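Exercise 7.
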Amino acid sequence: ECRGVLFRSLHAHRHRLAAANALGLVERARHLGKAARHDPTDSSLSAEAAAAMEAAGHEAMTEGRVPEAIRLLGGAVELGDLDAALVLELAQLRADQQDGDGVASLLHLIPADLPSDQSAHRTHLGAMATATVDPHASVAMVEAAAQQWTATDRPGKAADRKTAGQGKSGEIGGVRGGM
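Solution. The predicted structure, written as tokens, is:
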């Protein structure tokens, strides 16, 4: 028991040193994440690792490295960064990768009392996650999300909703509407 604690503490310290000397955000985040996993009782280390993983995940996303961004942002969430905006962002990335199960598991981490735009986004992501399993339920969820988006008070969002996916003369997605 004592030897195990000493072993984990030593590894955590070594990874902290490696993180301090890391050349980039991803390497720093990787080492801090390993340090936090070796010493899960150090809440400040876990918070530092989560923040580093979030920053590195955003860098990876900006550079188009989506799988790495998902891994890093997921690591931040695993270490306890449950900020609704971060979890929604990660859920959106997973939805874009057709990972309905991953989306569904993340949506359970988001509190119910969200600002209206985040609540609408959460409902929309839930619909996307449900689409392959229960298309009929998904349609109802998409309609609920549309109503929530309509109720938001974000400037410019109403115009975006009116024109999203519409082409000229009522075309939707390049196809003339008229169901």
